[in-house]
Amino acid sequence: MSTLLVVDDDPLITDLIAFKLAPLGHEIHTACDGDAGITAAHQVHPDLVLVDWMMPTMTGVEFCRRMRTSDLAGIPIILLTAKGGSSEVAEGLEAGATAYIKKPFNPRELVEQVTELLERPEPE
Questions:
Q1: How far apart are CA 86 and CA 35, in angstroms?
Q2: Which residues, other chains included, contact 4 with Cβ-Cβ below 8 Å and sequence gap of 6+?
Q3: Do residues 4 and 28 touch, judged by C-beta distance below 8 A?
Q4: Tens of pLDDT along 3-48?
Q5: pTM of the entire structure?
């Protein structure tokens, strides 16, 4: 079983993600903003984080930067956002996101992306 952290200020999004991923055996933890997400990440040490770009207290991009400079730097991060321009994608990836999914997203695409990232071998 994998532990996932979903950081999004929209409870409909966190509920949808939990609804799609929990039945696959994932333990889901949620946080409603970036600060709470950083705290939760240090508490639960997730195997993967899904984070929204636009949130209160800090953006998803800043969340990625903070994760990458902490003891949790190796955790894969999927950035979820309505921003989809090439410059935004590049900014998110440069900040440390492992993958990028544009909202509104197809739940099947989300499940596939999560599964793929969890199955990747850890870098040596």
A1: 27
A2: 21, 26, 27, 28, 29, 46, 47, 48, 49, 50, 114
A3: yes
A4: 999 999 999 999 999 999 999 999 999 999 999 999 999 999 999 9
A5: 0.93
Q: For position 85, what pLDDT does the model report?
A: 75
63-81 residue pLDDT tens: 999 999 999 999 999 999 8
Tell me the two tokens of residue 103: 């909202």
Q: Taking phi first (over 0 means left), then psi (-120 to 50 degrees means alpha), and beta for anything else, what does residue 58 get? A: beta
- How many domains would you assign to the chain? 1
Q: Domain range spanning residue 113?
A: 3-118
How far is it, in rounded angstroms, from Cα 8 to Cα 59? Answer: 10
Which CATH number characterizes residue 87's domain? 3.40.50.2300
| Residue written as token pair 């903003």 | 33
